[in-house]
Amino acid sequence: MLFHVRMNVNLPAAMPAEEATRLKLDEKALAHRLQEEGKWRHLWRIAGQYANVSVFDVDSVDELHALLTSLPLLPYMQVEVMPLCRHPSSIRLDDR
Ligand SMILES: O=C(O)CC1=CCC(=O)O1
């Protein structure tokens, strides 16, 4: 199952720099692992914003929820999820 996910990141201005750095490094490590596993299929920066657009490829909504709620930056992100299904005009046979 594919899901489009937008994440807007809002770190508090008062957060100590070391804590912000640690959170970002932890987030990066998990994002790398999930991409290597094929779960986090796309990760794009939205130009000019501290936000990303991602596509997750998971087996269930419960799995997506588990992944998203494991993200270290989640307490500082607004997350929007859109379920995706195949477009009848798509020529990409590998998408589902
Ligand atoms: O910077 C972001 O958009 C939040 C984020 C997602 C994966 C990552 O490494 O950072």
Mean pLDDT rating: 96
Please give the alpha-carbon distance between the first and last residues.
7 Å
* 3D shape: elongated
Number of domains: 1
Radius of gyration: 15 Å
CATH topology annotation? Alpha-Beta Plaits
| Proportion of residues in β-strands | 25-35%
Q: How do the strands of the widest beta sheet line up side by side?
A: 2-3-1-4
Bound molecules: the ligand O=C(O)CC1=CCC(=O)O1
CATH architecture: 2-Layer Sandwich
Largest sheet: 4 strands, antiparallel
Number of DSSP helices? 2
Summary of the model, kept short:
30% of the residues lie in helices and 30% in strands.
What does this structure look like?
With 96 residues, the protein is an alpha+beta fold. The protein has a single domain (2-84), classed as Dimeric alpha+beta barrel (Alpha-Beta Plaits). The chain has two helices and four strands. The protein has helices at residues 17-36, 61-69; strands at 2-9, 40-45, 51-57, 77-84. It has a four-stranded antiparallel sheet. Strand 2 (40-45) and strand 3 (51-57) form a beta hairpin. The longest helix has 20 residues, at 17-36. The radius of gyration is 15 Å and the shape is elongated. The model has no long low-confidence stretch (mean pLDDT 96). Ligand LWBT4IAB binds at residues 7, 9, 27-28, 31, 52, 73.
